[in-house]
Amino acid sequence: MRIKITADSTCDLSEELLAQWDIALMPMHILMGEDSYLDGVTIHPADVFAYVNAGGKMPKSAAANLVEYTEFFEPFAKECDAVIHISVSSKLSSCYQNAKLAAEDFANVYVVDSGTAAIGTGILAEYALTCIDRGMDAAALVRELTEKREDVCVLALVDTLEYLKRGGRISKTTALAGGLLNIKPVLTIEKGEILLIGKARGSRQGNNLLVEKIRACGGIDFQLPILLGYTGLTDVFLKKYVEDSRALWENGADGLESTLIGGVIGTHAGPGAIAVAFFRRG
Question: What pTM did the predictor assign?
């Protein structure tokens, strides 16, 4: 059985892994001023941050519509036995609903709500491919992903909550709680929603808090995919975090994959954010 894995462009994986596994991404729209771009197709995440850094207004994003999803699914539905589309959390975007409606036109297209976003969706997609390699069929894989998404943990240290507030992804009250001088908020995605779970003064304490929260999640299953991500024009903060948290990884992971977080999620997080996605240890 040939199963094609697809996802929204909010699914973050390194370019090398995307090419290796041939995962197809449905681009969302990024609106900058009067111009509209296709995320990852006609604009790169670095271009988005360069625009913001140059004084441009915060970009907006829009989900792909029903027609776009239908046209996206059609060739894969014809070529493959099944298509499994892994969507960004339905509580963060209308992507899931639009993809679900489009899938009704095809007998072999399935849509899974990842319950997460960015690198969290990325590791779920990577896990899906390992399941296919083990010979799992489409129906079983949909059930497995729906269950396994509960074990995905995404933790992020952001420089400010201002961008999430502007984008309507967190409340003004939550933004105010994390908006004190030099406070580095730690966020997670729980039940599909972004939550503030900790605050630290300065980057070093923020890194330590991020490590603490990873351990509080129950530990990392090093047998399953792990992915790090960053926003902005440099990964210097991510490299610093990896070095500061070496004890967390050195006995479990041979190496750590990392990627620039895509334009849609990246603009909501703002520049200077770092994030880690992993499966909790069972």
Answer: 0.90
